[in-house]
Write a structure and sequence with these properties.
44% of the residues lie in helices and 15% in strands. With 424 residues, it is α/β, with parallel strands linked by helices. The strands form 2 sheets. A 7-stranded mixed β-sheet has the order 1-14-13-12-11-10-9, with helices on one face. A 7-stranded mixed β-sheet has the order 2-3-4-5-6-7-8, with helices on one face. Helix 12 runs antiparallel to helix 13, helix 13 (359-370) runs antiparallel to helix 14 (377-394) and helix 14 (377-394) packs antiparallel against helix 15. The radius of gyration is 24 Å and the shape is elongated.
Length: 424
């Protein structure tokens, strides 16, 4: 039987750096979506307002506060972290200041216990986190000094926390998915689910090139558990709100099925002895599973998931014995540059591939020169061509992350090239 598709409420087209717009959307009595860095959420309970995610700070968080105050004058009882990724709760201090200016008690600041562990890791690797964010989102370093501020929760829980009483209570539930510290908000009386990072309008964000391992089967299990609640309405961290119990159920379970399919198929190919690139070349993604609108590869994408599964089971070695104990990269680059005697031939072959629009193959070939070191003018020409072809390749990929990494690499190559004669 074909299940009805959920109706979609609210457009909220994604803007740069994950900002989805302004204002609010009421999804049930006393339950509201707040637009900021993704969709935040606010619930009016009998003990006060419960807000999921404080936003990235600055103008965006100020707009979220204004939008909520247009809906309710109740005191803010709790700020809750939907998950521990940087940026989503950089605006905590603004909410606390707002409460103090109103003369309200200090709100509770609540998160899953795993957020404290994540924050400790982020503080230890702060320089790395900023550089990764610069690459993934193509923003200057100064941008992240403000938007990646860390605010620890005052209160944590492990599995479930209830706020409020009777018909106006809400439940915070652990929902490991994109992160191991993700939570959702559930209104039992209204059967409204705020899915946070567990529920997005894209292929689930597993295997993003610059991030740590994530477990697709655990994410699938979380979606199946959320489906068992039988939500009537599901608010996603990104994407339109889903309405209709059967349609919401279909999205949750179909997404779980896609994640489980990727795991099962990747494991089967690993068991045949295929390496990572061979698996990527062999896999076809069935249209009936991956062709649905809510699994479009606009952020995460299926091959990312495959690569994460492979990494989780295979370690770091690419199976090439030369790479097991490598020489210093600058020495390798110099020797490769010296060894390639037909540099013009490499340029010519790569250019032929590019002229056919085979940008990825052209990039593989041009890397023989673009990654080499030496004084030969062909090396600089190769890097210039590579930057051009990276931009062409970026136009072919659908993932926001892949596009940014390709375009950012092109920009870094441009900056490394000597100035052209007569420039300036």
């Amino acid at each position: 039987m074909t299940l009805p598709q959920p109706t979609q409420a609210g457009a909220g087209a994604e803007k740069p750096f994950l900002i989805v717009g302004e204002g609010s959307e009421t999804v049930g009595p006393g339950l509201h979506l707040l637009r900021g860095q993704g969709h935040s959420f606010a619930a009016e309970t009998d003990v006060g307002l419960v807000v999921m995610d404080a936003g990235p700070g600055g103008r965006v968080t100020a707009g979220m506060i204004d939008a909520l105050r247009a809906l309710s004058d109740a005191p803010l009882h709790a700020l809750c972290f939907s998950h521990g990724h940087l940026g989503y709760n950089a605006g905590v201090d603004q909410w606390l200041t707002h409460a103090a200016q109103r003369g309200d008690p200090r709100p509770r600041v609540i998160a899953h216990a795993g957020v404290l562990r994540r924050h400790a890791r982020y503080r230890e690797t702060a320089g790395l986190q900023h550089r990764l964010a610069e690459m993934q989102f193509r923003r200057p370093a100064a941008f992240f000094e403000r938007h990646l501020a860390l605010h620890d929760p005052d209160e944590t829980f492990e599995d479930r926390l209830t706020i409020g009483h009777d018909e106006r209570r809400v439940e915070l539930r652990w929902a490991p998915s994109e992160t191991d510290d993700a939570i959702v908000l559930w209104s039992p009386a209204q059967r409204v689910l705020y899915g946070g990072a567990a529920l997005i309008d894209s292929m689930p964000n597993v295997g993003t090139p610059l991030r740590t391992l994530r477990d697709p089967v655990r994410w699938a299990r979380t979606l199946e558990q959320l489906a068992a609640l039988r939500p009537e309405v599901a608010v996603r961290e990104f994407g339109p709100t889903l309405r209709g119990a059967d349609g919401v159920q279909h999205v949750l379970l179909h997404t779980a099925r896609a994640l489980r399919w990727l795991r099962e198929r990747t494991v089967a190919l690993m068991n045949e002895g295929l390496d990572e690139r061979q698996i990527l070349a062999r896999l076809d993604y069935p249209e009936e599973i991956f062709g649905v609108d809510w699994l479009k590869p606009t952020y995460g994408e299926p091959s990312y998931v495959v690569r994460d599964i492979y990494r989780a089971e295979n370690g770091w070695w690419d199976r090439n014995p030369t790479s097991l104990h490598p020489a210093p990269p600058e020495r390798v680059a110099r020797e490769i540059g010296a060894a390639i005697t037909d540099k013009a031939g490499v340029l010519a072959r790569a250019t032929v591939l590019a002229s056919r629009g085979e940008w990825q193959l052209a990039l593989h070939v041009i890397d023989l020169l673009a990654t080499a070191e030496g004084e030969a003018p062909e090396f600089a020409e190769a890097r210039q061509l590579k930057a051009t072809w990276l931009r062409e390749r970026a136009g072919q990929v659908r993932s926001y992350v892949s596009r940014n990494l390709l375009l950012g690499s092109a920009e870094r190559l441009d900056a490394s090239l000597p100035s052209q004669p007569g420039a300036g």
